[in-house]
Design brief:
Distance between the termini: 48 Å
Helix content: 40-55%
Radius of gyration: 27 Å
Shape: globular
Oligomer: single chain
Largest sheet: 7 strands, antiparallel
Length: 705
């Protein structure tokens, strides 16, 4: 069963609520909702019902789903509420939220928060007192205990005694993880003490505006994960963020449970160029400069974490992360990043050439890396003939590669998160003759096919497009069109699956970001949810259950509409079987592919675990086994390639860090694409050679080209 949505692309508030009346707690905290918020709620519900792409009424069924979503947003780890609280909420409000909120009455949510506030305050104070007291938590790490780590295994505590034990194990697990990361028990307790004191302080600082936003977004997220309400204050921060979006580290972040998780890196940004931060990494601490204290940010709101990470150009930020690529629960890594601007020219397409042999002939293959679909809108609107755009840059690179007489071309869209729809269309125009590129269906079900290729193809030779799970949006439109026109092969990993369009619309107070349309390929398939499925699949270390549109439980589904007439350039169906067969043979023999597949299997086995041991020696042994297994896989690869095996994991890590630094320096200083040591790119090249050879066997393999 998919877990209740704990992933929020907006800074979902975890504490606070509102009421028409005012309630004072013994801690002098007051909560109330205003007439303005009441009217805003009614306005938002109306717009969701009439303008959102998903035609979904706010009825009893959605009311119950909203209740679950709201409870989950307040207490995502099931740490504070008791099972009796949840049963009471369901009995009292499961089918009532639609009735009350349609009238602007927010009292049910207020009642839920009052209970949450008391539960959370009491629990945090209890944890803090236990951590501060010498007679408090004294853990026996030789005892055979464990905690559930799968989402399905998480349950609400039935009573206070069970809740106490769950928290005891929770604190024990945190301290053990810190110990395994070379912290002493006392130091670990200090880290946790600061963490929970900060959570208590933030709980007491929440106001009605924060909580209203959380309540409303418990509803908007049921329509799809990209629809959200922005209060006037959040909208101001959003606009500041947009104006500063090209200054910082260049990473898209989201909240998941208590952690801040990396969704993707902005191409050309400091984090992408630095090379160590990866999608799905979890940020657990942030430090300023080379010597600043590492501030623990577990349990912080997303906007608060962003404030710590954001900073001026040429300043240093240090991130302590739990690496997504590690199967070691105690693994921690500190990444040093110099903040900078994301410059348009650093997102520019680059070209390179790889030479590969099929045994009879050496093939010269052009490679164009397209990191983003960019367009200098201001210069374009001014009709500046020198405006920058993806299409203009790729056109120039195509002409240069034509002069070098390449035998085929690879368009590398790995990690390309999208960008301008116009550029996705005009880039497709370079490779196909006149015809539609994408269909767009509106909320009204009206279908637009205005985005078309309007010229004859500039490049007419063999083509391959390389994708991965982080290829999204505009990348999927381009790759989908190339695949539908059978213009070339799509190779790599299933793409992200972001096939919707959002717009900002004013509401009574603030604005609503609402999904209003959906992309469809010329074949009639949507790019939403499923993304583009490659003709030949490659392994990818990022877990598709953690990253991608399908990882959101309220994502709009994949579906189809009528196809539109379009050409078929190559008879791909006639050759794909043989291409796949040849690839399957190579991947069993290629040391890099064998290594990648074993890494993926290693991570999958680790992620499949249902419980986490709280026995220190067991965990140390698990760590040692994981490191030994990883080193053995790497040394197996090196031996197969005629290289000396590493003597230890430390030697391997040292050389890996040195190679990363060297690669970053080369990519920063060179305008040419670095194609060295890229096993996936090389295999894509061999697949392209197979395609060329098979197409050259006879004219019956080619249609209309």
């Amino acid at each position: 069963m998919r877990k209740t949505c704990r992933r929020f692309l907006i800074p979902l508030i975890t504490f606070g609520f509102l009421s028409l009346s005012t309630l004072s707690f013994s801690k002098d905290v007051e909560f109330h909702f205003t007439e303005e918020q009441s009217k805003t709620a009614v306005d938002i519900i109306d717009k969701l019902s009439t303008r959102h792409y998903r035609n979904q009424p706010f009825d009893d069924e959605l009311s119950e789903a909203m209740l679950d979503k709201y409870i989950s947003s307040l207490d995502p780890a099931k740490a504070f509420f008791l099972k009796t609280d949840i049963d009471k909420f369901h009995k009292k409000y499961a089918t009532k939220l639609d009735d009350t909120m349609l009238k602007g009455d927010l009292d049910p949510g207020y009642d839920i928060f009052v209970k949450y506030f008391h539960r959370a305050t009491d629990r945090l104070e209890w944890v803090i007192s236990q951590l501060e007291s010498p007679e408090g938590f004294n853990f026996d790490f030789t005892k055979q205990e464990s905690i559930p780590i799968s989402d399905d295994a998480q349950e609400w505590a039935k009573n206070e005694k069970e809740a106490d034990d769950k928290w005891r194990k929770r604190i024990k697990a945190s301290i053990l993880s810190l110990k395994l990361a070379d912290e002493s028990t006392e130091k670990a307790k200090e880290v946790l003490l600061r963490r929970y004191k900060n959570q208590l302080t933030r709980l007491e600082q929440q106001d009605s505006a924060d909580v209203f936003e959380a309540l409303i977004n418990a509803l908007t997220l049921l329509y799809d994960p990209h629809t959200s309400y922005l209060s006037p204050r959040t909208l101001e921060n959003f606009n500041i963020s947009m104006s500063l979006s090209l200054e910082g580290i260049g990473a898209v972040l989201q909240s998941e449970d208590e952690y801040t998780k990396v969704v993707r890196l902005i191409t050309g940004g400091p984090a992408a160029k630095q090379g160590e931060l990866k999608p799905a990494d979890k940020i657990i601490a942030v430090g300023q400069g080379d010597e600043g204290e590492m501030v623990d940010v577990v349990g912080w709101r997303l906007d608060e974490v962003v404030k710590l990470i954001r900073g001026g150009k040429n300043t240093i930020v240090r991130l302590k992360v739990m690496p997504s690529e590690s199967s070691d629960d105690g693994a921690r890594k500190v990444i040093r990043i110099s903040r900078d601007e994301v410059k348009l020219e650093e997102q520019a397409a680059k070209k390179g050439i790889i030479e590969l042999s099929d045994g009879d002939k050496v093939f010269k293959l052009g490679v164009i890396n397209v990191p983003a679909f960019y367009l200098d809108f201001d210069a374009y609107r001014r009709r500046d003939p020198n405006y920058k755009s993806t299409t203009k840059d790729v056109y120039k690179l195509l002409k240069e590669l034509e002069q070098e007489q390449v035998d085929g071309l690879i368009i590398d869209l790995r990690n390309n998160g999208g960008g301008s729809l116009q550029e996705a269309t005009t880039l497709t125009d370079l490779f196909i003759d006149q015809g539609p590129v994408v269909q767009i269906r509106q909320t009204s079900q009206t279908i637009s096919r205005n985005y078309r290729s309007r010229h004859k193809a500039v490049y007419r030779g063999p083509l391959l497009v390389l994708t991965n799970r982080l290829s999204a949006s505009a990348s999927e439109i381009f790759a989908g069109a190339i695949q539908d026109y059978k213009r070339g092969l799509i190779v790599g990993s299933q793409s992200f699956g972001k096939g919707t369009v959002q717009s900002l619309t004013p509401v009574y107070s603030g604005q609503l970001k609402i999904t209003e349309s959906k992309f469809y390929r010329v074949s009639g398939d949507s790019t939403q949810h499923r993304g583009v499925i490659p003709d030949v699949s490659f392994p990818f270390l990022v877990d598709s259950k953690e990253v991608g549109e399908s990882s959101y439980d309220t994502a709009l589904p994949w579906d189809q509409i009528h196809p539109v007439p379009h050409e078929a350039y190559y008879n791909i169906d006639a050759i794909i079987g043989e291409i796949t067969r040849k690839h399957d043979i190579r991947k069993l023999q290629d040391p890099d592919f064998v290594y990648l597949n074993k890494q993926v299997k290693n991570l999958e086995e680790s992620r499949s675990r249902q419980e986490l041991s709280l026995n220190e020696q067991e965990r140390i042994k698990e760590q040692e086994d994981m490191k030994a297994r990883s080193l053995a896989i790497e040394n197996e690869r090196r031996t197969a390639k005629g290289l000396e095996p590493y003597a230890s994991s430390k030697e391997w890590e040292k050389e890996r860090d040195a190679k990363t630094a060297e690669r970053i320096e080369q990519e920063t200083s060179s305008k040419q694409l670095n194609t060295d040591d890229d096993a996936l790119l090389s295999e894509a090249g061999y697949i392209l050679i197979d395609m060329i050879n098979l197409l050259n066997k006879g004219p019956e393999q080619v249609a209309n080209f």
